[in-house]
Design goal:
Chain lengths: 287, 329
Amino acid sequence: MQTVFSIAIDAFAYGMALFIICIGLSLTMGLMRVVNLAHGAFAMIAGYIASYAQRELGAGYAAALLLAILGTVAVSIPLERFLYRRIYGSPQLTQVLMTIGITFCVIGITNFFFGPTLKTIALPASLSTPVDLGFRAVAGHRLFVMACGLVVAAGLWFLIERTAFGIRLRATVDNAGMADALGVRTQAVYAVSFAIAMGLAALGGVVGAEFLPIEPYYALRYMVTFLVVVSVGGAGSIPGALLACLVLGAIDTTGRYLMPDFGNFFFYAAVIAIVCVFPRGFLGRAQ
Amino acid sequence: MAGTRAGSSLVRDAAGVAAIAAIGAAGYWLFPDNLALLTRVIAVALLALSLDLVVGYCGVATLGHATLFGAGAYAAGMACLRGVTEPMTLVLIGAAAGAAAGLVMGAVMLRAHGLAQLVLSIAIVQLAHEAANKASAFTGGSDGLAGFSPSPLFGTFAFDLWGRTAYLFGLALLVGVFVVLKFVVASPFGMLCRGIKEDPVRIRAMGAFVFPVLLKMFVISGAVAGTGGALAALSTQVVGLDSVSFELSANALVMLVLGGLGSLYGALVGTVVFMGFEHTVSAVNPFHWMTMVGALLIAVVLVAPGGLGGLAGRLRAAVRGAGGGRGRP
């Protein structure tokens, strides 16, 4: 019972951390149709900024988090303007090539500036102490990650389904030419969506650093995981991404608890099975 | 008319094959101290050729092609450890193992399309990597396979310390495989594959079955990649987990796109350029290397979307366009 409970808590928290990072990728892939393999690179930039802010500038956790998100978005804007804008609508292979190139550059440059060691992001006392839930104590950080994940999911759902911006975004996705003709500034919509996606990657990178530690090859190491999660959920679907993160997080965590020798074996076996049964992911739309 | 056109393309292909052999021989004379690296280039070039069959000619994108390369490498290594030491037999074993892996991989991957297909290919290579890591009784786990020594080629040419035999053997293999692939690509079967790449719906409407055709190409591609893997195993006499990794798959795809998709020469040019660049830059420091390779990739997408082959074609067309007006009567 004890084991089941700790697996469940860890799996849920890990799934939520995955969700915060991956939902941005799901947006860029499902709505903007860009296979952005550099997504993890932006989470990595955020992790490096947060760690730098804490160590060198003496910032607290909240300030470091805010700084990391703003910094990452600031980096992403020129990249969107000069590089990504050229590959909207290109063949997938071209997008893969360009974004792998960006990933390599980001890894090389961040390590040149911040040094090639593992970066830690210290948690504040309020998050590092266990919280008593009445029947059992749970690490405060886990609860914080879960809360962040739920807030992100609800906020994005509201943004896309219920606001004027969401309507413009969906119109641009369905028919960019027509939306343009109707007065939607499609390039601005894309730029804003991209910035939002990168901000979410940054949030996930810092908040999830306990699960996916910030290290020099972070962007490459988890690139495949993020891509897999998104396509299992169905690109562009928020509930799909949530479901995929929870299912894959549960499979991965359970496998690691019960059979640690097998590493990622169960994760990828499950992925093959799921993709064979749901070729568009759990809740993906026909394209 | 058709006869002369076929004849002229045959002459062109013969010249191309001769050029590959000549460049390979030049490499042998120019870099006698780097033959191990050059042999590695040939092994990876076989992987790039194999990937070109699937990506360039069939339009099936995959980031997991190293599975087939690794299958060949491990099969050759394991056979050699168990007493089969004749190099030619080992290459055939590697090719057969690659073909079998291609059959399985194709059967799984070809069920899906687009992004799901790409993700399936990644999952397959990760699974294969994990399996090779765990089945340490057969594969040596993370230590890899080592300590096997192939017997002399044809009983006379021993694999020497400088890698001369391995390099010339590899070059001969590459030229042989290239000639075979030229015939495959130009055959009606190769044409059908190109047709499927352009418009699968129309091909299906014409009455052809798409799945078995693509699967057959996957098997051929697996045999070629397996040959490359076996060559890598024979020349270095070590088989490690890196031969069945996502990184190798991604690098092979990068080489292919760099050289130009859908052309066998493009695969070779891309491999040589990428590995030469990597070798030159990685001497400085690993992060510097990543930045430079990344910049190279971005530059290729921005400047030469068709790869170096496409760029050369555009230049040739431009020159011909400029010179043609004056030159022709």
